Amino acid sequence: MSGTGRIRSKRRASGFVLVTMVVAIPLLLACVGLAVDTGYLHLVKSRMQTAADAAALGGVQENAQSGSANLVAAAKGDAALNGFTDAQNGVTITVNRPPTSGFYTADASAVEVLISQNVKILFMSVLGFTSVTVTSRSVAHQGPGTNCLYTLEPSASSAFSISGGATLAVGCGIMVNSSSATALTATGGARVTATAINVVGGYSSGGGASLSPTPVTHVANNGDPLAYVTPPAVGACWQNNWTASNGVTKAITQGVYCGGITMNGGSTVTMSPGTYILLGGGLHVSNGARLTGTGVTFYITGGTGHPYGPVTLIGGTTLHLSAPTSGPLAGILFFQDRSIASPAASAFAGGTTITFDGALYFPTSLLSYTGGASSHYTILVSKTVIFSGGITMNADYSSLVSGSPVKGTAALSE
Fold this sequence. Notes:
Elements: H1 3-66, H2 71-81, E1 91-96, E2 111-120, E3 131-144, E4 147-151, E5 160-162, E6 167-170, E7 173-176, E8 184-186, E9 191-193, E10 196-199, E11 203-205, E12 210-212, E13 216-217, E14 239-244, E15 249-252, E16 255-263, E17 268-271, E18 274-279, E19 283-285, E20 290-294, E21 296-301, E22 311-313, E23 318-322, E24 332-336, E25 346-348, E26 354-369, E27 378-387, E28 390-393, E29 407-412
């Protein structure tokens, strides 16, 4: 090949390389840009997931401590602390209780947080993309609690009191939230056994009383373990001053019982499943009356013209009552309206013919409890409590779809 041919060949090769470079450089830049944008989006996704997790956990904790009123604000506040503020910079945050999808749609303690953001991108804009929507989802719920007996009064002496040779055997833990030096008192040969006994303040034991295990004092206040449970709606009166006496046999259905329910004189009443709202008057069962109901909840409240009435179960009565096993009131047998301050005390004077499968929830009132036959599970949450008699409280929650309604610490679940 002549010199001139070789020069022409080199020129053609140089031109090919130049053309190749001109074509390849944009592709290389696009690949680099794609890698940079992908890395940035991955960073945003990671930070967003952290914010969603924090928001879900915060929502569960707020729900457990104070109820659902400020749950959404608390969850969004935790997301903001982690860099994602609702309705700013293209961010949208949705908070659901319970979750709208997944495995915890029936769990009233569970909180779902969804975060999305339109994220602007730089290099991929050459391909026509100006932004990408990044999303994250997190679900948290309260795991099962280890306690089944709570007193909520924050400072009173003898918030938990047992005396007179009474025995209390609890198949789970006891939590006394009073900060008093004598928040728990046991006297007169009383005996208490539980899996754990925790007291915010201190305790007093004398007169041959025994506590096993030895109470742990000066623990943190646990608050109301059922604060997350939403009370049922109270509608118009369905029955007024309902009574059963003189040996009659009746069947009743759920509804609003204005003036309450009163049974005595050997009457027998069978309750259909459902929610029985006692708008004033309370529930009074005495003098050999018999009351049975499966899947029932009593909501004890009051209103204008219908003053609050307590629950009194006394006088040789026979009661076999169990709470719903699923739904928003699962495990809740008695639910005292928590908005009523210092209502009259309720008395559960039991015996071998009384069983309660469910929670006795009296958050602002004194409860006097004298025991009953062994049930599968009994939960007691009250402002203060006085025990007498022989009492066994079991903790078999196998009949409940979501386990015990008393929840423990918040945990991420989805």
